[in-house]
Amino acid sequence: MPKALLFTAVLLSTLVMSAAGSAATLAETHAARGVACSGCHEENPPARPVETARCQSCHGDYQKLAERTRNMQPTNVHANHLGDLDCSECHQGHQPEKLVCSECHQFKFTMPKSR
Ligand code: HEC
Ligand code: HEC
Ligand code: HEC
Ligand code: HEC
Prior knowledge:
Blueprint: H1 3-19, H2 26-32, H3 37-40, H4 52-59, H5 62-68
The structure holds heme C (HEC) (4 copies).
């Protein structure tokens, strides 16, 4: 492969990886969208985890979140039989996502293209 082409291929694969959000943490994805540490943390330097109410001041309630993920398969993760959970049951600030549902189910969630 010519050098220029190879470079483009490598660049493209990097882009695809970051679009899939492979290993980026919430803090990183938020920073990329202009939300600094102080967007989530009230105190500087941060000394406490972030409360769900803080997330919802920007993202709205579960009804609004469920609307955003309404086409999610096999089920809408923001509308479930556990009720209004803390965001941190799944979204962590500085570590990869975890999924509280996995304690009992084996969902492989996919997001709609509309994202
Ligand atoms: C999207 C919201 C968000 C942003 C932006 C964010 N954090 Fe956090 N941070 C969290 C959450 C949630 C926790 C709780 C632990 C976890 O989930 O990883 C946390 C925990 C922490 C803690 C540990 C607090 C404790 O409990 O002792 C520190 C330190 C911290 N963040 C620093 C930062 C710094 C520095 C930045 C900016 C580079 C930042 N955070 C940006 C959400 C955020
Ligand atoms: C200061 C406003 C603000 C706060 C506080 C905030 N976010 Fe966000 N968040 C945004 C913006 C802006 C985006 C990018 C646009 C969008 O997707 O809504 C975003 C995107 C996201 C995304 C999708 C993007 C991604 O892949 O990471 C998730 C998930 C998310 N936020 C969760 C959280 C959680 C959980 C908290 C609390 C720990 C939180 N946010 C706190 C503003 C905020
Ligand atoms: C039971 C697990 C779970 C809980 C609890 C949860 N989420 Fe999510 N959320 C997900 C999953 C899974 C996705 C889709 C994959 C992804 O974007 O990480 C998602 C996606 C999102 C998105 C992006 C939606 C889009 O349009 O792409 C936002 C914003 C978000 N969550 C915010 C929140 C906030 C704020 C809370 C707390 C009020 C919360 N979530 C609670 C699992 C959860
Ligand atoms: C403590 C265990 C437990 C947890 C955690 C849990 N569930 Fe369930 N869930 C059950 C049980 C038990 C049933 C009913 C039996 C069945 O149909 O499998 C059920 C049924 C369901 C169903 C309907 C049946 C199916 O499998 O399609 C959906 C959808 C569902 N859960 C989604 C979720 C989601 C989303 C989460 C995470 C937010 C979650 N559950 C977390 C135990 C749990």
